Amino acid sequence: MLEVSGLGKSYGGRLAVDGLDFTVAAGEVLGLVGPNGAGKTTTMRCIAGIIPPTTGVVRIAGHDIQREPLAAKRRLGFIPDEPQLFDLLTVDEHIAFTARIYEVDQVAARRDALFSRLELTGRGQDLPGALSRGMRQKVAVACGLLPEPRVILFDEPLTGLDPVAIRAIKALMRERADAGAAVVVSSHLLSLVEEIADSLLVLKEGRRLFHGTLGEMRAELAPGESLEDGFLRMTG
Amino acid sequence: MAGLGWLAAQQVRARVQRGLSTASPALLAGAGFATLIGMAAVSAVARSPLGFEARHATGVAGLSLVSAIGWAWITAAGRPAPAFSRSEIQWLITAPLRRRDLVAYRFAVTQPALVALAAVAGVASLPFGPLQALRVAIGTLLLLELALIGQLFAASAQARLASWGLGVLPRTLVAVCIVLGLWAAVFWGAPVPPDASEDPMLALDWLADAIVARPLLVAIAGLPIAGPMLPGLGLLLLAAAGMAVAGMVFDGPFEEHALLASRPADRGRALYPLAGHGPAWRAIAWRGATAVTRQAVRAAPAIAVMCVSVVFLVQARANSPRDREIQVFGAFILGLFALAPTFVQQDLHDDLRRGTWLRALPIRSLDLVRGAVVGGTLTMWPAHAAITVTAAFFVPSMPAAPDYSRPVVVLSLIAIEGACTYASFAMSNAMVVAWPRWLQHTGEEAAGLENVGRLVGATALRNSLLLPVMMPSAVAGGIAFALLFRVDPRLAAVAWAAVSTSLVLLFGEWVVRRTARRLDAPWDEA
Fold first, then answer.
1. What per-residue confidence (pLDDT) applies to A199?
2. Which residues of A touch B (CB under 8 A)?
3. What value, to the nearest 5°, has the Cα angle with vertex B368 and ends B364 and B373?
4. CB A176 within 8 A of CB A183
5. Chain B positions in Cβ-Cβ contact with residue A88 (cut-off 8 Å)
6. How far is CA A93 from the centre of its chain?
7. Residue A57: what are its φ and ψ, rounded to 5°?
8. What pLDDT, on a 0 to 100 scale, did the predictor assign at position B425?
9. Tens of pLDDT along B422-454?
10. What is the pLDDT of residues B458-474, one digit of tens each?
11. pLDDT band at residue B55, thresholds of 50, 70 and 90?
């Protein structure tokens, strides 16, 4: 579903991502982890078509994000770490705008279901300025999931959310994967990754340190060593 | 309190430094342009018969001042709090500081903008001699300080009234009573108005002049003059001291109001509903048009004041009723062309800061740019059309002109206006893509004079770039306009208008495509 091959990105002479190869199959949740500056955000942005890679190819459901950007992006949902809403559009209007751009049918039913899950019911007429940061993040998640994309990228998705919303979004990630989507979650929260991810990609300085299932990762741990300990040893 | 003083000093220093930095040409552009405008305005006032004697300057200054304070009282009824930014609310309102310290802080950090404005007014008056320039600068500063104190006092008093359980309506009524009382007191000392029954237009002109435009300039120039002005000056200073003390005494709880005021919570109906399916650029245009209409609702009072000012300033200068109407409508149309994209920036100016998200959407750059341009055009073209149609009703035709001529010429004019509006918004969006660091919105409120400089510089550049292209249309439009009111129209003029419209539209489309290509270029953000 998501294929990344030979992905590299350099800014001037500085190499941010260096020759990444990985795939995320339908129904799989990949946890993308690494210390600050590891290249997680650059990788996510290259996959989403926000910045062009220096080398390599990204395919979303078979469509090259550079050569067929519209076809690829229609199958992709990107939920950024900072919700970037329009100041003068209401929550309902964000949904209507997203539905129009992604050519979504049955908008009302999908919106109501998402609003109910994310506790946004009754906030449809609010402008973003009247919402807390967590609520704005929920609106961004609702907009990202509305088109039911086949590949979903979550960039630090749980920042600023309350425990109920965290639980709801984790459940939504899993459900979307179970429904056949390929999900990539970039996060500093190893507990989140351990809880919902099927596989793990550990980056450091733009390079892949580990890529495999959680079971394979655990097999590499020393006796009594936690995932967090293993991560720290690997990236230290 | 010492910490607050240090913060205020740091803020002032940082603003001045940023303003004077060579990396910030906005200040220089803004100050330069404001100087030119100011010189033109002062010299126009100085050369024309004012209708006010110098001895009336105190009364007129008072009139201007109470207008400003009255406006503050009425607006504070709905938002009873001094204006604080979100970061100031986060850091200062939660800190163990007294309310009066916060008000004093607000007063202190506003000073650089007031001093800069006074300096600009002084520089603009240099043609009248250094002494007059000094007087103007001091007078301007004095008036601005008084207006600021009045504003802070109104906010504090209204917050106290709100804490006593008075709702918005009773507080507005209180504000209106206070304003009327102030006006009555000042009118008592102001020049005698002309008899409205003899010449209503003249009386209306007098009222508009007294409230809006020239009095401020007269007052600025006349206020610091010694002699007969001193008693009035003393009274105003006394009023300022009284307001400052009363503001401290009232000490109204404004924290919650300040928090609410810092959020853009107004909303209104969308201009038109968004269809479920269709080209992406129409969705972008819909988002821009919706945002602009909501922005316009907020700015309605300021727009109304500007419109009234234009009407009366133009009317005061016109030689005949016919010229008056043509000039008023012409000023509105030209003003819209020249200024609308500056104030209507719900397009790429606002969208570029969301680039990370927008670039992940399945939208072509061409759709993004075209939608942004169409969104602005959709909101401004109807305004042009409305002005033109209104002009057609109000301005009498020449007796020789046949009846059918009017709709034909009006339609031609509206077509030209649509094309020029499209080209103007295309250029505006092209500029923000070309110079994003200078022109795009940051999401934070821009600093006063620097923001003025940014807007003024962009307006001047855009209009000067557009001028060579729009000149043929302007000529065609001018001829059509003249034909509408003076002679029998010829089909040739209409054809010329059609050609101009097509050429300007083609130019606008060329700019849109160039901008989209620029936006398509690799976007390497750090």
1. 92
2. 11, 45, 48-52, 69-71, 73-74, 76, 78, 80, 84, 86-90, 93, 96-97, 99-103, 105, 107, 125-127, 129-130
3. 145
4. yes
5. 264, 267, 290-291, 294-295, 346
6. 23
7. -135, 140
8. 93
9. 999 999 999 888 888 777 777 665 555 566 667
10. 888 888 888 877 777 66
11. very low
> Residue B312: what pLDDT?
59
For chains A and B, what is the number of CB pairs under 8 angstroms?
A: 94
- Highest-scoring range by mean pLDDT, A61-65, B80-84, B173-177, B358-362: A61-65
Q: For chain A (length 236 residues), average pLDDT per consecutive 10?
A: 90 84 92 87 88 90 88 89 83 90 88 91 86 88 92 86 86 91 88 86 88 85 80 78
In a 13 Å sphere around the CA of B492, the CA atoms on its Cβ side amount to 3
Taking the alpha carbons of B301, B305, B306, B307 in that order, is the dihedral positive or negative? positive
Q: What is the DSSP string of B122-165?
A: HHHTGGG-HHHHHHHHHHHHHHHHHHHHHHHHHHHHHHHHHHTT
Residue the block writes with tokens 């001193």: B230
CA distance B136 to B123: 9
User: Which residues from B are below 8 Å from A93, CB to CB?
Assistant: 270, 274, 287, 290
In angstroms, the CA B60 to CA B67 distance is: 11
- Give the C-alpha distances (Å, rounded to integers) separating B180 from A3, A147, A228, B184, B271: 72, 57, 71, 6, 37
The burial class, CB within 10 Å (0-12 / 13-18 / 19+), for B436 is: middle
Q: Of the candidates B404, B409, B387, which has an alpha carbon nearest to the alpha carbon of residue B495?
A: B409
**Sequence-ordered list of residues with C-beta below 8 angstroms from that of B453, at least 6 positions apart, any chain:** B25, B26, B27, B28, B29, B30, B31, B33
What domains, with CATH codes, occur in chain A?
A: 1-75+150-160+173-236 (3.40.50.300), 83-148 (no CATH)
Question: pLDDT of B283-325, one tens digit each?
Answer: 889 888 888 888 777 667 667 666 765 665 566 555 666 666 6
Rounded to the nearest angstrom, the minimum Cα separation between B223 and chain A is 43
Chain A residue numbers with beta carbons less than 8 Å from the beta carbon of B268 are: none
Considering only alpha carbons, which residue of chain B is nearest residue A50? B359
User: Phi then psi for B465, rounded to 5 degrees?
Assistant: -70, -35
Q: How many residues does chain B have?
A: 526
A151-155 and A2-11 as β-strands: parallel, antiparallel, unpaired?
A: unpaired
C-beta atoms of A87 and B355 within 8 A: no
User: What does the alpha-carbon distance between residue A212 and residue A79 come to, in Å, rounded to a whole number?
Assistant: 24
**Residue type (1 letter), B302:** A
Q: Which residue has the tokens 């009773």?
A: B170
Give the type of residue at B312: F
DSSP H helical ranges for B48-81: 57-78
Given a contact cutoff of 8 angstroms between Cβ atoms, the answer to whether B102 and B82 are in contact is yes
- Report the C-alpha gap between B127 and B143 in whole angstroms: 22
Report CA B419 to chain centroid distance, whole Å: 24
* Distance (Å, whole) CA B54 – CA A221: 90
**Identity of residue B403:** D
The residue with greater pLDDT, B261 or A171, is A171
Beta partners for A33? Answer: A202
